[in-house]
Amino acid sequence: xxxxxxxxxxxxxxxxxxxxxxxxxxxxxxxxxxxxxxxxxxxxxxxxxxxxxxxxxxxxxxxxxxxxxxxxxxxxxxxxxxxxxxxxxxxxxxxxxxxxxxxxxxxxxxxxxxxxxxxxxxxxxxxxxxxxxxxxxxxxxxxxxxxxxxxxxxxxxxxxxxxxxxxxxxxxxxxxxxxxxxxxxxxxxxxxxxxxxxxxxxxxxxxxxxxxxxxxxxxxxxxxxxxxxxxxxxxxxxxxxxxxxxxxxxxxxxxxxxxxxxxxxxxxxxxxxxxxxxxxxxxxxxxxxxxxxxxxxxxxxxxxxxxxxxxxxxxxxxxxxxxxxxxxxx
Length: 330
Ligand SMILES: NC(=O)c1ccc[n+]([C@@H]2O[C@H](COP(=O)([O-])OP(=O)(O)OC[C@H]3O[C@@H](n4cnc5c(N)ncnc54)[C@H](OP(=O)(O)O)[C@@H]3O)[C@@H](O)[C@H]2O)c1
Prior knowledge:
oxidoreductase activity; nucleotide binding; Dihydrodipicolinate Reductase, domain 2; Rossmann fold; eight-stranded mixed sheet; six-stranded parallel sheet; EC 1.-.-.-; 38% helix; 2 domains; alpha/beta; GFO_IDH_MocA-like_dom
């Protein structure tokens, strides 16, 4: 039985998600929500018989079972709460919620709707190459530290330079470099090493007070993880996880194209396999497996939810450390 899928947000990432959903054979797109009928119809036309809604309540009552939310970050919270109230499963884009206060309210709503499953779409941690990194880290005798990098010039940065305020670079939409790109290496660090005992954020502000790039330092009991990310420049640095003599070298901690284990004695072994053409397929398979077998997959689900909430806690702490306040914090 395929799951009836509805989507919110009609940008390119939603198209990629719907293609992944269909490729997984676990979902069928049946409804699109857009603020404007024309953009909803333009999106839906590639996917056959799909109903288009401009009214959110009507969309939630249209018979969908799962909603994918890919609106600007600040809107995720209200849209998720409404979906949970309608007993719909939710796949919400990263960064899921603006702060810990919102996450706690979502948790309370989930307790009142115990059959609902909530997922944050952190696509990279579900990929085979991430699992290969995890397995290798578990084998390594000692971790001395890590440097994780995700810094890409954004097409939206041109708009910012032209004097505009693109959603993804504004605090009004709970956005900026940390919540947009920094969240990928942060997810990786917390998945691999757990909660840090301290976290610090050195942010480079944009003229509007949002962060355009930054350096995060996560302090663990006996090592530190440095994270570099930004939206106004291109970095070609690889990410590295340091053992003692041995090292894992990753071309991109978010895209996970090539992962090499260097044993320090001259032997380099590729531990990656070719990345999926559509990087959202693995997460969509995992989410469907959990929805379709909630009892059998409960431990996996709880682990993912805990990871998502931990990332939200550290994101909130990091912004506090850098003095970045979102309107959603008030
Ligand atoms: N997983 C990934 O690889 C990946 C990649 C890119 C983005 N994302 C995430 O996806 C989400 C959307 O990012 P994006 O860059 O696509 O954002 P965006 O272009 O600013 O907005 C996405 C969609 O939300 C709706 N929207 C835009 N502005 C709005 C507003 N002011 N009020 C209400 N709705 C509005 C629009 O849909 P309608 O016009 O149809 O209403 C738009 O297509 C974010 O959470 C982002 O972090 C994830």
